[in-house]
Design goal:
By secondary structure, the protein is an alpha/beta fold. Helices cover 35% and strands 13% of the residues. It binds zinc ion (ZN) (2 copies). Residues 123, 127, 133, 143 line the site of one zinc ion.
Length: 175
């Protein structure tokens, strides 16, 4: 679900990329405005935890999982910024285009942006399936504190996380 204005082509390409990695149907939902109560005027950022609640409140289709995608910069109070956030074993996750697209400064190639968003989307959705942060080299569930680390990863789970995901999906099948 786009939160605020997001280029529809980016959403289409992200939908296609995520569909290649996840065993269920991914649809682009109608956009919703960013909720003003999650905006922090001094930080000029949106509180990602508030956006997760907003996604749940606005999921008219009662989706299996809901991934918010926004161009706004996100934060949680203990960090300067976050690339995204998710509910561990919950339903909602959110990712931001702001840092991956060059933080309002130098624009990165569209392909790079899509790759970054795909990795962030898989990582945050992984949390909703109960996956924690993983220390296996290259695993997409590893924590990336910056874009350089994110760029080194493939959009893939390690064999350990893959088994955990398969178990989760067997016990909680998509409806
Ligand atoms: Zn994480
Ligand atoms: Zn892993």
């Amino acid at each position: 679900m786009p939160l605020g204005p997001v280029d529809p082509e980016i959403l289409r390409r992200l939908q296609k990329a995520l569909s290649r990695h996840l065993p269920f149907t991914i649809r682009v939902l109608p956009p919703k405005p960013l909720p003003p109560q999650t905006y922090h005027v001094v930080r000029d950022q949106y509180h990602s935890t508030g956006l997760l609640e907003y996604l749940l409140d606005n999921d008219d289709e009662d989706s299996y999982r809901i991934l918010g995608v926004t161009a706004a910069d996100l934060y949680i109070p203990i960090f300067t910024f976050v690339f995204g956030e998710a509910q561990l074993e919950g339903k909602a996750a959110v990712i931001s285009l702001f840092r991956p697209s060059g933080a309002g400064a130098a624009r990165v190639p569209r392909q790079t942006l899509i790759q970054r968003l795909t990795k962030l989307g898989l990582h945050e959705l992984g949390h909703t399936f109960g996956l924690g942060h993983c220390r296996q080299p290259g695993c997409i569930m590893g924590f990336s504190e910056n874009l350089a680390k994110l760029d080194l990863k493939d959009p893939e789970l390690c064999s350990y996380c893959r088994v955990l995901l398969e178990d989760y999906l067997r016990n909680h099948p998509p409806t």
